[in-house]
Amino acid sequence: MLQSLASNSCVRLIQNHKSTWYFLFLILGYVLYLIFGAVVFSSVELPYEDLLRQELRALKKQFLQENECLSEERLERFLKKALEASNYGVSILNNASANWNWDFTSALFFASTVLSTTGYGHTAPLSDGGKAFCIIYSVIGIPFTLLFLTAVVQRIMVFSTRRPIVYIHTRWGLSKPMVAVVHATVLAMLAVSCFFLIPAAIFSVLETNWNFLESFYFCFISLSTIGLGDYVPGEAANQKFRELYKVGITVYLILGLIVMLVVLETFCELQQLKQLRKMFYLKKEKPQDRMAILEHDHLSFTTVSDGNTTSAQDKAQMFVSVPTLASPHDDAMIQ
Prior knowledge:
The chain has helices at residues 2-16, 18-66, 72-87, 104-115, 128-172, 176-206, 212-223, 242-268, 271-278, 287-305, 312-319. The chain is mainly alpha-helical.
């Protein structure tokens, strides 16, 4: 008996807090996904890192053997200074000295990566004034960019998603959820083709050191605002029309980010995903439930605060007047 009561109470507890349990499973799944990614990246990349370290040590040892007049300490200081400058986008190589990181087009590209929170990291402010301005510029510019993107996406959604779905639904009488799913799939395929596959093919031609996979990788890392910075276009020494190329990449990043947000918003409006999201959200209190709680609290307050508390029978007599009969003969109906 006690076991059945305990099991029933556990079932009721789980049912009453279903969204909380779903949320806990969501957190657990996210943590496991992070661990899974760390294990895969470590197992795949660690051997390549070890191989590169061995190659660099061998080259350094060979260089010191060929130049006995140069001490290892002086070489270490030189390499440290060169690597620090490389972190700020300044290279000491002869074929890279012609490219400036802070001309107008490069600065425009940098500003777009800052405001879109892509942040490749290939270029960073050198001066204290530039770092301070970058902070102020980002504090104002990032919310401004979010406002701009939200307004643009909201207007595009009317013509790209909502009106086509309503038109097909009313014209052919198809199920609206099914139309929405098909429309979102087609829109995603168009976005992948126009802003991933075709640009990747173009970048693989314009960037001599990139193959198609590396170009596609750059497009995905950029438009998803991850911005690792290991691949940055327009940085080659023999890049033709570099200024125009940088402006074109800036326009591509802004348009691609808008299209990505449109696609994501289209999928978020699907009824299936809305139901999935509701599984992890806290339930909102309904107006009638809130009124019932307030009435219950009000009645409890008046009952406790009343000094002349009466019994249930006295309360009933206060609201219902029942005549008392001396004898059955006093009732006219009986007579």
